[in-house]
From TrEMBL:
Coiled coil: none annotated. This is Pilus assembly protein PilM. It comes from the Bacteria. It holds the Pfam family PilM_2. It comes from Massilia litorea. The gene is pilM.
């Protein structure tokens, strides 16, 4: 049977806000909020590398429990109630146009649309959905993103959390959590903004318009594509190509003055080698801008945020600005909160906690 995994699983009586927990590819990211006179602040935040591979850790209950105990003790987290999310590889996101006839509820219409698209597989799936903002979303037709996961995966993950000593309040939808974070950062809700979330082999484009999610889609662009291109072009091992990328970034920006010495030439060489990858990214960004304009009757994206692996490389901000001709900045999740964190964030990669921050904000603007 199809169910919503956003239904409350709350352990009543706990006063502290749930902790947003993201088991990312390389690190455990956690963030917890607390109320203040001006609004929500960060109570505690942490980004902790795994002692072993993610899959190995999650499959070892004793080691996972010890790791979670260490994480909770490393920062002033309160309680063990959590909001988390399945790994992207275990969730299928379906953009759907749903017809809601008289006498049928919106959830029923979404369930019918998912059954029509997935067939028999829908019976063994857990489904939730998020309504997408569009000027066309009126009347009997609604634009939604449906998140579908195998029931067995959902139940296994919930048991993994409980076995680690955590109390799951809910499982959220990743794009909805990211949209929630971006909405909390905005001052002008008539504008739309784009987040490019760079991954190892795929990246994700998320657009919010005002406070609502408008678009979330996967594209074939990732850190390892850049590494592979450098490796093949220069005859380097993957490890050396990755080190080169980390040292010199994605190439000297266009129009940068020529300097003396070897390094400026290396930067230009890297830029030339990676040209095709960024040309493909430019096409995806243009396609996204056209889609947004068509859905908003001409409104344009006002700002682009960068997050994820490639966002850490030198010159990426300037390179994307060349592609979109818009203001571009690295995503700072702390801008969604009022004032400085109540405690110092733990870990050297705390700007990678965007998803954990969005999970922690669940229940604010988006209910």
């Amino acid at each position: 049977m199809m169910k919503s995994w956003l239904n409350s699983l709350v352990s009543k009586g706990a006063l502290a806000a749930p902790i947003g927990v993201d088991f990312a590819a390389q690190r455990l990211n956690m963030l917890q909020t607390a109320p203040s006179a001006k609004g929500m602040v960060v109570r505690a935040a942490l980004s902790l590398p795994y002692p072993v591979e993610r899959a190995q850790l999650l499959a070892d209950p004793r080691r996972l429990k010890a790791f979670i105990r260490e994480a909770l003790a490393a920062a002033p987290f309160a309680g063990r109630r959590v909001v988390s999310v399945l790994a992207p590889s275990e969730v299928r996101i379906l953009p759907l146009t749903v017809h809601v006839p008289d006498g049928q509820s919106e959830p029923q219409a979404v369930a019918r649309a998912v059954r029509e698209q997935l067939g028999a597989a829908a019976v063994e799936s857990v489904v939730d959905y998020y309504q997408v903002r569009s000027v066309e979303a009126s009347g009997l037709d609604k634009q939604v993103l449906a998140a579908v996961a195998a029931s067995s995966k959902v139940l296994t993950y919930l048991e993994t959390l409980r076995g680690a000593g955590l109390e799951p309040v809910a499982l959220d939808i990743g794009p909805a959590a990211i949209a929630r974070l971006l909405a909390a950062m905005q001052e002008d809700f008539d504008q739309s903004v784009l987040l490019i979330n760079f991954g190892a082999s795929k990246s994700y484009l998320t657009v919010i318009w005002g406070r609502r999610l408008m678009l979330d889609r996967e594209i074939d662009f990732g850190e390892m594509q850049l590494v592979d291109r450098l490796s093949r072009a220069l005859g380097l091992s993957t490890e050396v190509a990755l080190a080169l990328l980390r040292e010199h970034g994605i190439g000297t920006p266009a129009g940068a003055p020529h300097g003396a010495g070897e390094q400026p030439d290396i930067g230009r060489t890297v830029r030339e080698i990676l040209y095709q990858e960024f040309a493909a990214l430019a096409e995806e960004l243009v396609r996204t801008q056209v889609y947004v304009a068509s859905r908003t009757r001409g409104s344009a994206i006002s700002r682009v945020y960068l997050n994820g692996s490639v966002a850490r490389y030198r010159h990426i901000q300037e390179r994307v600005e060349e592609l979109v001709r818009l203001p571009v900045e690295l995503l700072d999740p702390y801008k969604a909160f009022h004032g400085a964190p109540l405690s110092t964030p733990v870990g050297s990669d705390t700007h990678g906690i965007a998803l954990a921050a969005g999970l922690a904000l669940r229940g604010e603007a988006h209910g």
